Amino acid sequence: MAVVVRATRMELQTLRKRSVLARRGHKLLKDKLDELMRQFKILIAEYMGARQKIEGELLEAYREFLFARASMRREALADALRYPGAVAVVHGSTRKVMNLTLPEFDVSMEGSIRNYGMLDTTPELDASLEVFARVLPGIVRLAGQEKAIGILAAEIDRTRRRVNALEYILIPELEEAVSRIRLKLEEIERGNLTRLMKVKKMAERKREGTLL
Amino acid sequence: MRNPYLYPNGRIGALEKDLLPARTWQMLLSAADSVEASRLLADTWYGRFPGLSQCAFETVFEAAQAASEQELMELSEDRALVRGILHRRDARNARYLWKAALCGGNADGPELEKPGLVEHSLLASALADEEARKLLPAAMSAAAEELSSLSDPSPLEVDRILDRMAAGLELDEFSSMGPGFRRLLETMIDSRNVTTCIRIMLSGSREDLSPGVLLEGGTVSRKAVCGAALEGSLPDFVADIENLERLAPFVKETLSSRSFLELERETERVIMEMLDAGSFELFGPAPLAAFIFKKEMEMNHLRILLAAKAAGMDRARLSRRLPRG
After folding, report:
1. In this predicted structure, what is the pLDDT of residue B93?
2. What pLDDT is stored for residue A1 in this prediction?
3. Which pLDDT belongs to residue A74?
4. Is B112 an 8 Å CB contact of chain A?
5. Is B154 on the interface with A (CB under 8 A)?
6. For A67, which of B92, B113, B321 is closest by C-beta distance?
7. Mutate to test the interface with A, among B257, B303, B318 (most CBs of A within 10 A)
8. In-domain check, residue A136
9. H/E element, A149
10. Which of A176, B5, B78, B214 could form a disulfide with B222 if both were Cys (CB 3.0 to 4.6 A apart)?
């Protein structure tokens, strides 16, 4: 939608100032978008690497757990896992990237993972629990990274919409308004000039008639 | 005088034909998935139990286990055999109930198996009630006594006492079945002790390794096994244990690779060979008990195979764990 304005010099000056401001804002937002994209790519690369590693380890743990579950009685497995001997403490902190607050999580484990007897349980259960305990901090860190990626993605989306709004809507509209006012002012200028020339000619004709 | 085990042992001879032959195991191992495996199982003894076509394997195995135990108890005229079979279930239920009572756990009660010879209510009251304890078998009563004297025990402490109780109960009831069967039980205890040592060593808590955490009743003393493990000479030690000689390289391999698959497979293979060799008293309760052990191992292996097939595990990895085929 075109900007509706009065065709005055003052308005022209205001619109020119707004246009300069919009261009400067567009450049800043574009730079912010580029930096956000760079940070996003770094985070994605870290996330993908960590995820692949954890998925590989989890696959191995599930394979061991499959044997444990199959070779143990259901009740015995439930009994072995009913009394956890280890406590996982999640520590949360934040870091700032481009004025965005991104979460960071870390886990510390206290106690022994194996808190059951040896007769009714299998070594595969030990092996799978050991891997699960090893990958738990990674999984929690991954959750933090995932959240950070989500926050960055939302900010990128918001910034891109602002950049596009400035680039494709506000700046062209302001330029068009400036151009229209300029044309209108030029037209008014030309009209005034023509009028003055006509008045001058009429005045000259009147003076010539008086002399004759 | 007529031997009371003439008919039962003849019947067991016939029932052994229901055990899956090597060819069936090969076919099961080659099955593409658990559905195909269940179709193959439907043509065997397991086909008589409902649930196989719906792949409800746990239901099938529970029914098969109950049927095998019931048949043997009807055949057996030996009270020790019946007690031995059913008290194993009681020992497991005692563990679930007593551990929940002493260590808390979550708000729901523990999952229990169906009772053997001791009702759940009697087991539940045995920790607090001295009169109830007197009604339990000696090993269970002693364990309940020991547990009730502990103040705020950890699940690990409770489990150690209950592990000893379960192994002692098994040994008490089954050891009267002749030297052949006793030898089998001793070998099983030896192998469990060796595995326990390796598990503790690999968990990084060498300080927990003491004779007290091992089971009594093996061919070698608990102190000797423990000493060998702490010295780092467990493979050489295992090479000198009768019947377990061939586990020595697998013990070494497990200690270096931290994977128990091959060791578990070979241990079960040793037990299966001892059961198949049948060096028990021919007309007595031992072949009946051996049959129950064989059936249990077979079902355990079927559970592993079907779980692996359902998860799409490759045959090579399955063969590392399964002592069949």
Report:
1. 92
2. 60
3. 87
4. yes
5. yes
6. B321
7. B303
8. yes
9. helix A123-164
10. B214
Domain limits for position A110: 24-170
- Which residues lie below 8 Å from residue A209, measured CB to CB, with a gap of 6+? none
User: What is the CATH number for A147?
Assistant: 1.10.287.3240
Q: What is the distance between the alpha carbons of residues B64 and B58, in angstroms, rounded to a whole number?
A: 10
User: Hey, what CATH topology would domain B1-11+23-78+284-325 get?
Assistant: Topoisomerase I; Chain A, domain 4 (1.10.132)
Average per-residue pLDDT in chain B?
A: 86
Question: Are the C-beta atoms of B58 and B34 separated by less than 8 Å?
Answer: no
Per residue in A43-73, pLDDT (tens digit) is: 999 999 999 999 998 988 888 899 888 889 8
pLDDT tens digits along B250-268: 999 999 998 899 999 999 9
SS3 string, chain B, reads: CCCCCHHHHHHHHHHHHHCCCHHHHHHHHHCCCHHHHHHHHHCCHHHHCCCCCCCCHHHHHHHHHHHHHHHHHHHCCCHHHHHHHHHHHHHHHHHHHHHHHHHCCCCCCCCCCCCCCCCHHHHHHHCCCHHHHHCCCHHHHHHHHHHHHCCCCCHHHHHHHHHHHHHHHHHHHHHHHCHHHHHHHHHHHHHHHHHHHHHHHHCCCHHHCCHHHCCCCCCCCHHHHHHHHHHCCHHHHHHCCCCCHHHHHHHHHHHHHCCCHHHHHHHHHHHHHHHHHCCCCCCCCHHHHHHHHHHHHHHHHHHHHHHHHHCCCCHHHHHHHCCCC
pTM of structure: 0.80
The token pair that represents A142 in the structure block:
């991954």
Q: Which value does ipTM take for this structure?
A: 0.86
Counted domains in chain A: 1
- Which positions 211-230 of B are in contact with A (Cβ < 8 Å)? 213, 215
Per-residue pLDDT tens over the stretch B275-317:
888 766 667 777 878 888 899 899 999 999 999 998 888 888 8
Q: Which among B106, B160, B264 has the least Cβ separation from residue A123?
A: B264
A180 in a structural domain: no
| B264 touching chain A per CB within 8 A | yes
Q: Do A117 and B167 touch (CB under 8 A)?
A: no
pLDDT in tens, A98-115: 889 999 999 998 888 888
Identify which of B111, B154, B304 has the shortest CB distance to residue A71: B304
Q: Which of B128, B99, B83, B105 is nearest to B292 (CA)?
A: B83
For B177-225, what is each residue's pLDDT tens digit? 778 888 888 999 999 999 999 999 988 888 888 888 898 888 999 999 9
Distance CA B56, CA A5 (A): 78
- The distance from CA B56 to its chain's CA centroid, rounded to whole angstroms, is 23
